[in-house]
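COMPLEX REQUEST
Ligand: NAP
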Amino acid sequence: MVNKVVLVSGANQGLGFALVEALCRNLGPEASVYLTARNAARGEEAVRQLRERGLSPIFHLLDVTGDASVAALAETIRARHGGVDIVISNAAARISRDLSQAEQVGLFVNTNNHGAYRMIRAFGPMLRDNARFIVVASGFGSLRNLSADLHGKFDIARRSLDDIEQVMDDYVHFIETDQAKAQHWPERINIPSKVGQVASIKIMARLMKEEASRRGILINAVCPGLIDTDASRPWFDDMSSAQSPAQAAEDVVWLATLGPRIEAPYGELVQHRKVLPWL
Ligand SMILES: NC(=O)c1ccc[n+]([C@@H]2O[C@H](COP(=O)([O-])OP(=O)(O)OC[C@H]3O[C@@H](n4cnc5c(N)ncnc54)[C@H](OP(=O)(O)O)[C@@H]3O)[C@@H](O)[C@H]2O)c1
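STATUS: Structure written out below.
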């Protein structure tokens, strides 16, 4: 793969940073690998660290909670390259142990769900032939993790991307007004959010199926498995079984760099190179 145009969101630390490093190494100096971050100083510092390792990612500001920020990056990529080969929507808000779920659900969903939706909307139409579009989700994103009476809300065969956005906004409202439990929603906000991310990628895959098949495009969600990052560490007493970000990046990069004429996985949630069931 030469001269590829690659974009990773939330890439100044954690898995995103390791993805940029691995993609720079895998694709070589001809590739344009965009390390994006919501904070310029943190993003530029991350680029500086990778330059010290002989790599040359390109920094661009990207706050996935803002339509204008996503549109600005899309315009830059369009003007410089005309399209994009690999998009990894990785940016995520953390869950704090010190705040209630109600206090953080709004920002969490706006970043992790509406942020992924903004990436789908902006970069889906810019995918080149044989492009790979990936949302970093988690194993929590299987629909089986939700009560059966909620499954219709995530009907991937019929729902639109906008429907899922509305379902997630409704969920925010239920958490904020203490109605979630009565409606059989989990009170841990990570599970519905990840289900929403995977539903959106499956719907994107459904809507683009004919074109993607014709043009060799693959669209998937990925679970990287447990990774030792600042996001996960506060939740576990023992991180000895966790992967380093570099280890976790390997299987995500495998998915992102699958060669042309490969038709699967498509529209799936993939963990360690295997498809996880939706139901
Ligand atoms: N860690 C795990 O065990 C694990 C397991 C399963 C799935 N995952 C998934 O893997 C992905 C990466 O996780 P991680 O552990 O690497 O998380 P992390 O260390 O918290 O990194 C998240 C990145 O997203 C960025 N970000 C936050 N809000 C943003 C916004 N509005 N716009 C753009 N970027 C934003 C953060 O930037 P700042 O530095 O500015 O905050 C940071 O660079 C997430 O999708 C997560 O759900 C992680």
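REMARKS: Residues 9-10, 12-16, 37-39, 42, 62-65, 90-94, 111, 136, 138, 223-224, 226-227, 229-232 surround NAP (CB under 6 Å). The chain has nine helices and eight strands.
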